[in-house]
Amino acid sequence: MLARKFVVAVGLLIVFGFKSEQVNAQDVLVNQLADWLSGSFNSKEQSLKDTSYYHINLEIVRIWRDRQDGIWLYVEQAMAGNMEKPYRQRAYRLTQTDKNTFESAIYTFNDPVRFAGRPELINKLPLDSIYKKEGCSVFLTWNIEENSFIGSTGERTCPSELRGASYTTSEVKLKENMMLSWDRGFNEDGIQVWGAEKGGYIFLKQKK
User: Fold this and answer.
1) Residue 18 parent element (H or E)
2) Mean pLDDT of the residues in the chain
3) Which one has a higher pLDDT value, 20 or 67?
4) What is the pLDDT of residue 105?
5) Of all residues in the chain, what percent carry a pLDDT higher than 90?
6) Which helix (H) or strand (E) holds 47?
7) Which of 171, 133, 172 has the alpha carbon at shortest distance from 149?
8) What does the radius of gyration of the chain's CA atoms come to, in whole angstroms?
9) pLDDT class for 14, splitting at 50, 70, 90?
10) Are 65 and 46 in contact (CB under 8 A)?
11) CB of 57 within 8 A of CB of 85?
12) Would the pLDDT of 205 be above 80?
């Protein structure tokens, strides 16, 4: 009887130990995704090579570290030389949907300019003051061969009214020190009405 209890106990340890290793492995990937996304980026090098691309600064920092519903990031984009007036400010929530796939859900908030250059202030923002952009999540898959996260929004799932658009799409490829981001707007006939035409913006990480 004692031997049987010992075998059962060992079996439980093996099972739970294996599950723990799986969870830890998943934690490593989602934290790697957050780490690679976080930092100061810009597209200066691309803009010097091709003047059809602007020099854009991109700042991404961790926020709400105590929350247990995912990893939260504050995102700010601005034209070089005009950092005090970013044209895009968002919050991202990173969660893992399966072994190698992650969702980056997009949130907006009122009066975002108050956080420009001061992301620490967003930590005091109540969660009921942020609004999810339904259908606009980017789903990223870990590609072990390319050592990168690659993904996009769904097809025609993200509505938009910007500059005559009916919907937007986002395509992303993320490496340790580089992010390729291609945001485009399309009208109801599927004709592109805004966004880069040749390919995505290449943002190089300047610092963490």
Assistant:
1) helix 2-37
2) 86
3) 67
4) 98
5) 69
6) helix 44-49
7) 172
8) 20
9) very low
10) no
11) no
12) yes
C-alpha torsion sign, points 151, 32, 57, 70: positive
Q: What mean pLDDT do residues 66-77 have?
A: 93
State residue 122's pLDDT score: 75
User: Where do the structural domains in the chain lie, given as residue ranges?
Assistant: 2-207
- On whether the CB atoms of residues 122 and 108 are closer than 8 A, the answer is no
How do beta strands 192-195 and 201-207 pair? Answer: unpaired
Q: Helix or strand or coil: residue 86? A: coil
Query: Whole-angstrom Cα distance, residue 93 to residue 139?
Result: 12
Q: How far is the C-alpha of 183 from the C-alpha of 196, rounded, in Å?
A: 7
Largest distance between two CA atoms of the chain: 78
Assess if CATH 3.40.50.300 describes domain 2-207. Answer: no
- Phi then psi for 131, rounded to 5 degrees? -130, 125
Rounded alpha-carbon distances, angstroms, from residue 37 to 7, 11, 155:
45, 39, 23
